[in-house]
Specification:
This protein is of the alpha+beta class and about 100 residues long. It has one domain. It is about 45% helix and about 10% strand. The strands form two sheets. A two-stranded antiparallel sheet has the order 1-2. A two-stranded antiparallel sheet has the order 3-4.
């Protein structure tokens, strides 16, 4: 686990504490690019050596969380038109019409 010097002694950071600012910086630097390019940059920025076991799971989970927020901020995948959603047609729930 990564260690840092604080107050003259070694303090260990969690894997997530190491991964979070790296992922945030990569997303910030590539904010207006498409998701494929961001994921490519994140793949290059992986800091923990071999991609396996718990550090890699933490890395992937943190990417998932931060990309979710990035998508929400950019408005990707959101719709305010209910007719575009599969359970709605003309803004009404299909079950009311007995179509499900």
């Amino acid at each position: 686990m990564p260690a840092i010097k604080k107050y003259g002694r070694s303090v260990h950071k969690t894997w997530r504490e190491v991964a979070t600012p790296i992922i945030g910086k990569v997303i910030q630097d590539n904010f207006w690019k498409d998701e494929k390019e961001i994921r490519r940059a994140l793949r290059v920025a992986y800091p923990f050596g071999e991609r396996r076991r718990y550090p890699y799971k933490v890395w992937l989970n943190e990417i998932k969380q931060q990309l979710y927020m990035w998508r929400r901020w950019r408005g990707i995948g959101q719709t305010s038109d209910l007719s575009q959603l599969p359970l709605f047609r003309d803004g009404e729930f299909l079950e009311k019409q007995g179509e499900i």
